[in-house]
Amino acid sequence: MHTGSLLERLHALQRCEERIDWFDMDPEEVEGITAIIFKDSPEWRVARTAHAEVKAVLATREHVPSKAERTEDRREAARAARVAQSIGVPADGLGLRIMVASGRGTVVADQADEYRRLITERLAERDWHGAYRWAKGWIGSGGGERLLDPWLTYVASSLIQGHPRSAVHSVDLALQLWIEPQPDRAILHWVRSRVIRFSLADPKTASSDLDVAAGAVPLWLRPQVETDIPACAEEAARSRKRKAVVGPTPEFTGTSADARPLESRPELWPVILPFLPCGPPIAIEPGR
């Protein structure tokens, strides 16, 4: 079902009145009502399960911009068009949009570095939507979908909002469609384990991600994974959670393509790391 329809269903259930006896209605009027309008009715109690299911589905969806956010996007597009007209550059050029946002007078040649700079600025302000928007533009431009940086930005943006399930969904999307090199996948599995273990309180499910990560994790992250595995196993043994909070990680079904050098650390890693739940207890050395 479309996200907008799910939201309307959720809002309709939330708008129901609390109790029938709070209203001056005849029994005949109550019996004639076919819709769910009271929360203390048997129909609403049945619908409560649907309410929880709707919320669970929405938690896996990407953010739907609000009216204010859409207005801001239109203003930015109009500003880009004005600058384009003044300097004679096509307004629909990606480089121009980056140039306008950065306030520079020339089109930026290295778009990846500029995206990283813009994302770093937004995350420093805990502006989840600004960071999310630049990451989405980077992926949509055809230049960032094979890199970890924009996907990790999605994770950080979701965590700033307090939506850990959306963070897991972003990792799963990357693992399924775009990120194929095993060391890169191992990094995403470790990030996924952190979110599931600490934000969703499910160390049993997190252990599965750590086991996968251990098989191909880059050297710079290996000490952290080796520290997490026994600690997470101990927490899993004490956990009373019987049902996994999220499904298993998907297999890669995307199209293979040339990837960046293996074993290299994502350049935005120092920026993303502080937003991960319960930051690492040991230092992770930079580099390869």
Question: Could you describe the 3D structure shown?
Answer:
With 288 residues, the protein is mainly alpha-helical. It has three domains: 3-58; 65-109, no CATH class; 113-275, Tetratricopeptide repeat domain (Serine Threonine Protein Phosphatase 5, Tetratricopeptide repeat, Alpha Horseshoe). The chain is 59% helix and 0% strand. The chain has 13 helices and no strands. The protein has helices spanning 3-14, 27-31, 42-58, 67-87, 94-102, 111-124, 128-140, 148-161, 164-177, 182-199, 203-214, 222-238, 269-272. α6 runs antiparallel to α7 (128-140), α9 runs antiparallel to α10 and α11 packs antiparallel against α12 (222-238). The protein starts with a helix and ends in a 16-residue tail after the last helix.
Indicate the topology.
Layout: H1 3-14, H2 27-31, H3 42-58, H4 67-87, H5 94-102, H6 111-124, H7 128-140, H8 148-161, H9 164-177, H10 182-199, H11 203-214, H12 222-238, H13 269-272
Helix pairs in contact: 1-3, 4-5, 5-6, 6-7, 7-8, 8-9, 9-10, 10-11, 11-12
